[in-house]
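Most newcomers find our protein records easier to grasp once they have seen one. A learned vocabulary of local backbone shapes supplies the integers on the structure line. Here is such a record, shown just as it appears in the course material:
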Amino acid sequence: MMKQQTTHDFGATLQFGIVAAVDEAGHNLRVRLPALEDMETDWLPMITFAAGGNQFYSLPDEGEQVVCLLDAQGESGAVLGATYNAADKPPAASKDMWVRRFKNGTVIEHDRKTGDVRVKTSGVVTIDADAVVEKTLTVNGLLTYTAGMSGSGGGGASAMIDGAVHATGDITSGGISLPNHTHPGDSGGTTGKPQ
């Protein structure tokens, strides 16, 4: 037997609530409203930055605090967004920072003052682009290059690098180590490693 909802008589209001359920495919939420005797809303659309030609998809977790704009009966409206609170504090303290922090520890951030973009993750970062990286690309970790892209001055399935390549570890090509390879000697034996 379903518990009958309490009827409230209020005008269109701004209400703070807790996410009770998430409709991932529809980008909708059900919200529990503590100020209204824990009344649970019907499915409400979660407002997003864009939903047409440009699209943005992001949903809060169950238990997260959100703010809603509801009609006079509290049955229809929209979730305007999540709010920081004592339990969930902001991930930055600068108006120059754009930060996207995920529950699994992944962080994507941009500092508009310096222009720096940082991606920190324990997963794989894939850049699938038709254009070439023309400036500096810094990778802390393993960088895998898949043939099929071309660098400046190159084409086809190769990469061209204009400038110096500095490595503190080994560089291997065709199974041959650059700093550790040897050659057959002129009078037998093998040469030493490159100096």
Residues 118 and 188 are 52 Å apart (CA to CA).
